[in-house]
Amino acid sequence: MNANDSIKIDELKKPYFVWFEENWIHDDVLHQHQKGQLVYVESGFQYITIQERIYLLPQNHAVWIPPDVIHKTNSHSEKIKLMIMFADVEKKESFYHEVNVFSVPPVLKEMIKYAEKWSKLLTKDHDENVFLKALFNELPRFVEHSLKLHICLPKDKRLTGVIEYLHDHYHTEIKMEDLGETALLSSRSLERIFKKETGLTLSKYQQVLRIIKSLELLSLKDLTISETAYEVGYKSVQAYTRSFQSVMQFRPTDFLKNMK
User: Fold this and answer.
1) Where would one find the signal peptide in this protein (predicted)?
2) More confident of the two residues 51 and 88
3) Fewer Cβ close by (within 10 Å): the C or N end of the chain?
4) Average pLDDT over residues 145-174
5) Is residue 228 one of the residues assigned to a domain?
């Protein structure tokens, strides 16, 4: 993720680097870094593709991207504040070598904000080094649970049109026959291939899409929970809340509280 080609992350002769932008300018290009990186969304929302999975980062959420993992920035809200922190990874702990999406607890949030004072500092700084070493050392403890805010992109070309259709019509009732015709497959074959490629049934994929879209809408703070529920295709707030809780393991009201 690059905002300015003048800063070459992999050429920096320092173990940590902080990068804050009020309005991030995105490069929709696959790339990788030798350092691991922590991407924190202070406000707005951000989609990132990592290893053929699309992840959503709502406000007050972060993702840890391990070193040398190929990724790119996707769509994002009109106004977005991002803090990106790069770190050399020497630890053998499994956490640092896996993608992790998580809500940021208050203590970590304050530490990230404090680190803004070193944003774009190219030279080594003792205080920065000590502070960020402590932050990254404790990062696994801050992540109580990883959110499954991702959807897989299938490699089978027959599913390209199906995925596009699902993304365009996630809020409507989808008929298997229509999807089968799009892929030129029988309903049974489509369901089997889709599950093999994405790890989800078609109905579960649509459910996850709806919840991810609802998180995006809630992050914008323009709609109430009730309005959001109907916007993404649910016929009642109760049905939306049940679906949300089954995917996220907490309620929409809990998500809004975390955003304050």
Assistant:
1) none
2) 88
3) C
4) 85
5) yes
Asked, for residue 150, whether it belongs to a domain, the answer is no
Count how many Cα atoms sit within 13 Å of the Cα of residue 31 in the half-sphere of its side chain. 17
Burial class (CB in 10 A: 0-12, 13-18, 19+), 92: exposed
CA distance 226 to 236: 8
Report whether pLDDT(2) > 60: no
Assess whether 172 and 208 both reside in one domain.
yes
* Shared-domain flag, residues 19 and 115: yes
| CATH code of the domain containing 252 | 1.10.10.60
What is the reported pTM?
0.78
The boundaries of the domain holding residue 249 are 157-259
Token pair of 115 as six digits = 């680190």
Are the C-beta atoms of residues 232 and 210 closer than 8 Å to each other?
Answer: yes
d(CA 102, CA 160): 29
